[in-house]
Design brief:
single chain, about 375 residues, alpha/beta, Spore Coat Polysaccharide Biosynthesis Protein SpsA, Chain A, UDP N-Acetylglucosamine Acyltransferase, domain 1, 2 domains, nine-stranded parallel beta sheet, eight-stranded parallel beta sheet, 7 helices, globular
Length: about 375
């Protein structure tokens, strides 16, 4: 998820105006879960300060610190003193609906949630027989099935004995898949259940698809002010204290946070999420993008299929291209995104000068600077300067 995780944990990245982890927590709460243990480490203060004790969501949250990212089995080991005889374990970087969580909460046996995918490359894979899981493979090169591990489990207390015995893997982590395999090898049955609503957020561009899907289900609301002469069509949510100035044209689904100034004479197209305290000004066009809190795009700029971090400032005439001339799918740092359209991925605090140009698929590290008239492409390190 770099460069977006240069200043925050992955689970706090926004989708439709809320952190990934909040979406997961609210779906778990809707399924009937009331007690949560959040295992935190990198920038744990961001998680703690946002969720506090969970009372805002009507749940109880406790925290466990994992000082080094040593794998999911290690996270479970660190939490074992707080766990009962049965619990649900979830990866924090997935999107899931309550309909697929309810059966886990009510389960009485060990269960793994799985999803059938056309391509399981780079994912954990499950092999089954007779309604039970018989083997788990962690990112194997020749997967025997297309059943991917969804990172969502129901465990009985049996797992806690085996997690203490889990050895470190060749990747240098304590893998939960090794723990579950030990459980199976000891003759303790592990079932499985197909999920229907799962998505994994592995790369920055995955956020765009998740954001588009989440916004499609957001109801319209207007808590701010809309000047005469502004045009609002489709499902658009406008936060408290925000002002939509005359000449602005907004086509939903769009979500705009609190205390924003939008316009005059800008065009905000579908699947765009704008955070709190943002300014989108005259002659600006934005489509299918995530604009995080405190960012300013005040004059004559285009932002398409992009993610712009917090407190960025785009100079007048900044253009972020989102389509190759040959219209081929876009690769980022050697990884094929599978997307024909992808703009820029900016970390926090990025500044561009007037008439800056950003090539499709450019990754810009936090606090980087792109000078007036400069063209940026590829991967820019945090704090880099391009003239």
């Amino acid at each position: 998820m770099r460069p977006l995780t240069g200043t925050r944990p992955k689970v706090m990245l926004p989708v439709a105006g809320k952190p990934i982890l909040e979406h997961l927590l609210t779906e778990c709460a809707a399924a009937g879960a009331g007690d949560f243990i959040l295992v935190v480490g990198y920038h744990d203060e961001a998680v703690r300060n946002y969720f506090t004790d969970g009372s805002k969501w009507g749940v109880n949250i406790r925290y466990v610190i994992q000082r080094q990212p040593a794998g999911t089995a290690d996270a479970l080991r660190q939490s074992s003193h707080l766990l009962g005889t049965a619990f649900v374990l979830l990866n924090g970087d997935i999107m899931l609906k309550s309909v697929d969580i309810v059966p886990l909460i009510s389960a009485e046996t060990n269960l793994i949630s799985i999803v059938e995918l056309p391509n399981v490359e780079g994912k954990g894979v499950i092999e089954t027989r007779g309604g039970q899981v018989v083997r788990l493979y962690e990112k194997c090169t020749n997967p025997p099935t297309r059943l991917a591990n969804a990172g969502v489990y129901h465990f009985t207390g049996d797992i806690l004995k085996f997690v203490q015995q889990t050895p470190i893997s060749p990747r240098g982590e304590y893998e939960i898949t090794d723990t579950v395999q030990a459980l199976i090898d000891a003759g303790i049955p592990v079932g499985y259940r197909l999920v229907s609503t799962w998505s994994e957020l592995s790369y920055p561009w995955d956020l765009l698809q998740a954001n588009e899907s989440a916004l499609a289900n957001c109801p319209p609301s207007v808590e701010g002010m809309i000047e005469p002469g502004a045009t609002i069509t489709g499902s658009v949510a406008i936060g408290d204290g925000s002002l939509i100035k005359a000449g602005s044209y907004i086509t939903g689904p769009v979500k705009i946070g609190r205390n924003c100034v939008i316009g005059p004479n800008c065009h905000i197209r579908p699947a765009t999420d704008i955070g709190d305290d943002c300014h989108i000004g005259s002659g600006v066009e934005i489509k299918n993008s995530i604009i995080m809190t405190g960012t300013r795009i005040p004059h004559l700029s285009y932002v398409g299929d992009s993610i712009i971090g917090q407190n960025c400032n785009l100079g007048a005439g900044t253009q972020i291209a989102n389509l190759r001339l040959d219209k081929k799918t876009i690769a980022v740092n050697g990884i094929n995104t599978g997307r024909q359209k992808l703009g820029g991925i900016f970390g926090d605090g990025v500044v561009t000068g007037i008439n800056a140009s950003i090539n499709p698929g450019t990754m810009v590290g936090h606090r980087a600077r792109i000078g007036p008239g400069a063209a940026a492409k590829g991967v820019l390190a945090p704090g880099a300067t391009v003239y």
